[in-house]
Amino acid sequence: MTQDPNNPEGVPAPPASSTPPASSTPPASSAEPPSSAAPPSSGGPVGSAGSASPGRRAGPDKSAGQDAPGSRLLNLVAVMDRLRTECPWDAKQTHESLAPYLLEETYEALEALEGGDPADLREELGDVLLQVLFHARVAAERADGTGYTIDDVADGIASKLVRRHPHVFGDVTVTGAGEVKQNWDAIKAAERAAARAASGGGGGSVLDGVPFGQPALSLAAQLQRRAGRAGVPPELADLADQPVGELGAALFTLVTRACEAGLDPELELRAAARAYRDRVLAWERFREHAPEP
To answer: What is the DSSP string of the chain?
Structure first.
């Protein structure tokens, strides 16, 4: 998903991969391991950040400086290495088998955010982080030239943030968040054009890369935002004369209104759904305690 440039972070390029300290506290996972699973592979990942040997009890490496920012991330890498090599359930997972958990944990983090409980959100963000690390650990085991490690993932996003924030890491001057967003979009478009040219592709579309697997309201909003930034005539969003249902065209128009108002239609409908849920719960409580007629 595209990073929000309205909240730029100064993230320097990460150092080269090194062997991390281990941890005695494994991360929690919402996934229930099945009762039967294949035995774990004894081989370590290609280019991994390190793994503990069987029989070796993991423990924090005090020399690494537990209070240093990011030190606990290294502990998490070590824990994931042990789980991948010593836990039958973790050892048998693939990108495909983990996909449902990536979606599930993301929705749970969003629900925690909407619930306003900081401790709950922190826990759910940890579950999302686990999914990122798990997928990188699976990829690190490939020996066909397509593998990558969690360091590669971190380096990729850090490098992207540096490239797309020239007002922080370069000599570009901006007057506000709006100009940051414009620069981000321009740099992103140039990067995509260069990638297409390198691969021998055509001119491409402003809608390239929009994931159609996302919820429909979010999809419609992203399509309209992308098109609007590219100067697509707004009247193209009027689908009344197109071969779509009347309700679908009306919903698409509502998305247009939300975008024009600077609102996210997905979040607006989620707020409405929560309000409806609360009213139903209140009605149920009232009915439960109401005196018998």
So the answer is: ----TTS----PPPPPP-PPPP-SSPPP-SS---S--PPPP-PPPTT-S--PPTTPPP---GGG-TTSTTHHHHHHHHHHHHHHHH-HHHHT--HHHHHHHHHHHHHHHHHHHHHT-HHHHHHHHHHHHHHHHHHHHHHHT--SS----HHHHHHHHHHHHHHT-HHHHSS---SSHHHHHHHHHHHHHHHHHHHHHHHT-----TTTT--TTS-HHHHHHHHHHHHHHTT--GGGG--TTSSS-HHHHHHHHHHHHHHHTT--HHHHHHHHHHHHHHHHHHHHHHHHHSPP-
